[in-house]
Each structure stands twice: as C-alpha cells, then as structure tokens.
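Structure, all two chains, one model.
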Amino acid sequence: MIKFSEEKLKKVGEIITRYPEGKQKSAIIPVLHMAQDEFGGWLSAESMDYVATLLQLEPIEVYEVATFYSMFNLKPVGRYVFEVCQTGPCMVRGCDDIIDYIKKKLNIAVGETTPDGLFTLKTVECLGACGYAPMMQLGKYFRENLTPEKVDSIIEECRQKAATNN
Amino acid sequence: MSRKLLLDKANVQGIRTYDVYRREGGYASVEKALKMTPDQVTEEVKKSGLRGRGGAGFPTGLKWSFLAKPEGVPRHLVCNADESEPGTFKDRYLMEFLPHLLIEGLIVSSYALGSKVTYIYIRGEYAWIPEILETAIAEARANGWLGKNILGTGFDCEIYVHTGAGAYICGEETALLESLEGKRGNPRIKPPFPAVKGVWDRPTVVNNVETLAAIVPIMNIGGEEYVKIGVGKSTGTKLISACGNINKPGVYEIDMTISVEEFIYSDEYCGGIPNGKRLKACIPGGSSVPILPANLLLKTVKGEKRLMNYESLSDGGFAKGSMLGSGGFIVLDEDQCVVRNTLTLARFYRHESCGQCSPCREGTGWMEKILRNIDTGKGKKSDIDLLWDIQRKIEGNTICPLGDAAAWPIAAAIRHFRDEFEWHVDNPQECLVRNYGLAHYADPLEVVAPA
C-alpha cells in the first residue's frame, strides 16, 4: 500500500485550502505531481487511485487528467529522465545532433530506458528555453546550451549521484 | 537605447529579494493604487493603451471593463504563466529574476478587479519557478502587501501558484480555466466568456505575466506617460525573446519604435547572425505567426523600414506581413531548411491539439505526415496543394485558436517558400544531403530571381 508521509499529507491539505470549498478537484494536478515524485517517477493505477481517495474523487476523474498532460508518466521510467526539446528553435540550434548523441552514448532509442534503469530518453515539445538551445529538462531543472561534452558530464554526474545514493 | 520599464532593475544585485526590491522603489504602485478607487485604476490602464502581451494584443483595460460584477459572487484574476509558444521565454525571465514585479502587478490588478483570491497558473515544466514566486508571495505577505486589510484599506487578497503539467493548450484562457478546475485542458465554447463565467462559473479575468507586470510602471508613471513611449496603438514597452541563428539570444525590452533590422543586427540586441551567414527568414512573434522571408521582413509593403510593433509587423496582412504575437522572435539563417522547420512546428501542434475538434485533431496529424514525407524525399507535387487545402479547412473551424495557430505557419511557409517545397519533391535524393539554401529570399522585394 502506498501512502504519503504525514508531512506530505499536510501539504495536500494545504493545497486543497487554496481553492473554494468543495472544489478540491482543482488540487488534482499539484497532487499528481507530488505522487509522481514520491512513488517512483511515474503514476501507477495504484498511485492515481490513492490521489482519488485523498481528494474524494472518482478514480476516472484522476485518470482523465493524468492521461491528458504530457508531464505525467504512465509507465515506469529510469531514475534520470532526459527530456530533450525538439521543436523548431531547438532544431535550428542542433537538437537533432544532441538527441542522436544521447541515443548512441546510452545505446537506447527515444522512449527507452537503459537496462540498468538509470536513464530514460524522451523527446518533448517546446519547454520555453529557445534562447538557450539545445536543451533538456532533467528533473526539476533545465540543462541548456547542450554540447556533446556537456551531455557527457551530465551523464557522469547522474552516475555518480546514483552511486553515492545507493 | 530603448527606455526600460520592466527590466530596468533586472541587474540590481539581490532584486529577487523583498528588501532590495522595496529599496529600489518596489510596491510604490500598490500604495498609489490603493488610494484610488478600483475603477480609477482600470481607467488608468485603459488610458495607457496597454495591449495583452500573451499574443492576441487585446486592450487590457477594455478586457477588465468587461468583467461582470454580480452581487455576492466572488471574482478572480488568473495570471497566465503557461508560456509555451515556441520561441517565447520572456515570462520565464520575468518570474525568475523579477518575481516581486509580477506580485506587485498582481496586487494592483486584483484590487482593480476585486479579486480576493488570485491564481498564477504556471506551466509544470518551469518546475523551479513556483518556489521563487512562493517565496516572493510570502515576503510580500509578511510585509503587509497581501493578506487581510492591506494597508488598512479593507482590501483582502491572497495569491496562489498553481502548476500545470505539460499542455500548450492550457495557455488558451478557457482551457487554462478548465485545467485550474482540475480537468483536462479542453477549451470551452464561447460565449459565455470568462469575464462572465470563468473559473468555477465565477467572473474571471485571465492576463499574461508580462501584461500584469506592466501594470506596475503604468501606475507609477501614469497611463498618459505610458502612451508616449512607443508608437500608435503599440504603447509602452514589449519584451522580445530572441532565439535561433543570432549572436546574442535572450530577452530584450524594446520600446516598439526600433526597426526589425536594428533589432537583428545591432549589438544592443541580437548582435547579428553568426559566422557571417545571411538572413533567410524570421518568425517574429512565436511559432504560430506567419514566417516571413528576409525581403518581406525588413521592409513593409510600402518599402518603409518595418518596425518591431503590432501595426508594422502586421502591415501587408498575412500575404506580406506577420504579427508581433507573443514576442517570440525566431531567426533563421541561410543554412536552415524551411520544410524541416515547418515540420517541427506541425509536429508540435499535432502533439498539443487537445483532440476536441476534428479539423484540428485530424488535420494536424495529416499535415505532420505529409510534411515528413516531403522532408524525407517521399513527397509528391500534389502534397503541397493538399497541405494548403488542409490548413484552409482547419483555420476558423475549431473551438479555440489552436487550429488557426497550427494552420498559419504552414500557410505562410507554402506561400513564401513554395519553390523550396517543390525542390524537395523534385530532388528526393539531394534534399536528404543538402539544404535548399537562400535562393532569392534575401533579395529586394520586387526582384524575383530563379532559384
């Protein structure tokens, strides 16, 4: 059984108070973000059902939302998800080469996860960093002005982080 | 040098913190506004001629005056921070570096509109920004600018940050409201307009981040003074986020009197095109606006210098002009392929279509497929006409403007770069290994030289 910590539950309660009484449905997206962060980087049916229970909603109301928004992963992903932007302005600055480089380096295709479960490569549409292209989102932050060397050091950084956290 | 109203303090050390922001004159507009009546504040905004900075350019004061005020029904202001238009990253800059400017603008605007609970709807991918905004909100609250009975005037206001989760469509105001209600981002049929029935069926105003930040200088210098900056109906200053093949990508504040040529080539702004390459084309207002070849970009139909403002950029209509839009300025040099660029935009709109209306849901997918065929040398001549036909049938036939936004870039690319599309079809092998190049696009307007 999955469950938020007391601290997280308090946070959920605080989020609900931001909206008028009886409109706790508004908290779906913020709480789904919390659930995804907390329960392995993706939303299992169990996670979504849990969110539905917390917000006193029908599970279908949560599924509807989770399947609409591209930031919600509906299947397991690696520990580090490289979300590389591929829209026009990034394309102009060479994102295709960066995507190819990551594919070769990690030996995976777009949408796949490395066998060690560390890395997933995703292509995404415009993230609002067009001036600092090519770029990717890694967790909470953007990594901008990417070059093959920068990609190498990001991969190395992730591997080291994973090694020290284990 | 353009006068700066929004970014003038952006480089002050520590401007993100309340103390420094206040020391630099921050929150003066709240003090001023709260001594006026809400209607007087709205009147000042009307006088300023401020137009919505999110892309549509609708007069802000007029939008505010449409807000229904039925007795006993709460009203809301919602700040649209779902910035997702390719090429646009100005709101991110404002929120990241000048969070208090937005909060200040929100307090004044909330007062004018009578919004006691105001929301900032921010795109989920800007995941580190809510914390910055929430810190600024907490600081403002601790110093008496938010909460109950602000400055002893009896005005109560709270601001909450609400994150989205990756959906361009939620930048459309009714989709944003659906999303704020915890639903899929499907745009609503209008009427009723949000001003009458918005979030939770309450009267709601949705404004862009930059629009709301601009309320601060408008209150500080007065609407009449604001009008004097800029030209015609393009009053005040505008943030332009410049990207693509330029030496100095970034966010610039301009006063809308400078020319497009100056903006691209002067060192104060984009600093020209790298490696001595020539200008091929430009999408001047975010990916949805028509792409213009160099010859049409720099001069208006009358042969005058084209300026960076609403009227001048749209001079010539869609046949020979474009739009200022959101200010997402994308420059393409001679090495860029218009077909491939258009393909990435078609893919973007296919990905972002909410799927409610068939013309958009199906049409965006067809356009992407056809463009991919042309790009990879598998296209036919008739595909180009088919693309034209599909975009015509999407435009104007959908609930929200995403359909138009998907159609316009395709239409403009074919209108101005048809020979490049044809070259791809005629040279299926060659187009895989080299780009079409500059052809005649950088030539003066009247000259049409063979490719």
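The two ends of chain B are 39 Å apart (CA to CA).
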